[in-house]
């Protein structure tokens, strides 16, 4: 205050000498410089880095900073500035011309430099104090932007990098989880689409909205439970003479049964189903209050369960019988084709009934195939698919054997549709005079009364194995099925022959099989056993000492359908004699059931060389889950089972592999109403 009064008095005395004014200015300047030097020493002027290093956590400036700011403000009043301006304007040495021309004395230069430094320091101090307050206010309000990092300390930079890295990892984790979830959903949709039978797609769509809902059948299940409980309470009401309640339950039961019908989801139910379910719930609640007895209810539910089990077993047996019956029958179209071809064949003159290139039939340097079938269409698919995928069709020879009934039709079909440059020959098994009951044990057994009774007496229940309808197929009565054990007798001049069933399709060239080294074995076949499936104990009766002493129950089974036989080794090992021995021992069918695979496993035990599985893929006649890639990679696919591709009960997903080798535009097929 004294200083201010002094300055005021100086301002009043305008006629004061210039020397006294100069002293006042110098005193003021040195006072400002003294204050600035003191506060600089105390850390008032912090650098930009020091200012940000405090992490903006302090809310107020240091007390020294506040004191300095107040002092500077007090010194920088309007009166002081006016005095300094007036003094410098009136003094000659401090005039603007002197500054421009540089005509200052040494003392004035020092004063001018010190004054400029003081002015700069004062302005910088005010600016930094203002910046610090703004930064602190932004920290308080959370408005400090993250992207303004021009004055960051290394510590803050590292912290920000860690924060950014954490954010990036979190985002990457979310993206990865989203990708995994998408892949799982896609895989689940693919598996669900594979499990849907194409025959059902006409009335059911897996993409319908109710399928996505886990409780899409909640009302259906509720009504089913209500129907069961209504039946229980009706029975109990009859026992306890609750006739009115019984009638009411019966009325509601019929309503619910009509509303439920054959619905499997809530979307299939009529609109009135919910109301009827509620009405049934009220009646059941009433019945529960009057009739509920835990022991009685439990007994009734147990009786209903036993009755349902018996019905299921009966229906399952009936279904198996119908399936076997359908597999045994010949479709009308195939029967029509066989009859038409037979008529045409016997109308031909004998000279036109012969096939060309008969000289190749006994040439061991060619690729020979054995095919035993009574199905013209099936045999044509085997031959066509083999030739169409063969590299050198002219070197392939097909030996077809059929029965007397289909001999004319089989000949006529291949006379009308020759297999390109390949050689083909058709024979009648009934013309093999050496194949008689005195030589062949199975023929003798098939002629016995016990065997005929087993096959043709439907209500017979005492014979062994009569409960298994699979083995009561008339195909086992045909010698075509057993002719595979007599290959050296049928083709005495051949060294090797590839045996094919008539329910297979060839997809690749098979000539590589002739170069496979069988290592002295007779039979080259694909093994079919898994961990415990299709092993010997599945086919043979190991409770019989003849079987248990000679065979390993865990030995791996193999498949008929595509088998490479070395006929030279066959003759050396007397395979046909081994077959006769075991067939005679099984006359009472105690060693194995009927069929050709069990005696084949016994006959070729230890004499079978396993082929790569890609040569022969099985199961297309019974297994809906055969891998599509395995099918496409296979050289031969086999429709073993009841669902043959030429039957209506064939699985549609596999039928196209077979049907593409059928000439549906052929006149004979059109006349017999064949359709794809």
Automatic annotation (TrEMBL):
Pathway(s) where this gene product acts: Glycan metabolism; pectin biosynthesis
Keyword entries, A-Z: Cell wall biogenesis/degradation, Glycosyltransferase, Golgi apparatus, Membrane, Transferase, Transmembrane, Transmembrane helix
GO molecular function: polygalacturonate 4-alpha-galacturonosyltransferase activity
EC number annotated for this UniProt entry: 2.4.1.-
Compartment(s): Golgi apparatus membrane
Alphabetized SUPFAM superfamilies for the sequence: Nucleotide-diphospho-sugar transferases (SSF53448)
Family per record: Belongs to the glycosyltransferase 8 family.
Protein name, entry field: Hexosyltransferase
Species of origin: Hibiscus trionum
Lineage: Eukaryota, Viridiplantae, Streptophyta, Embryophyta, Tracheophyta
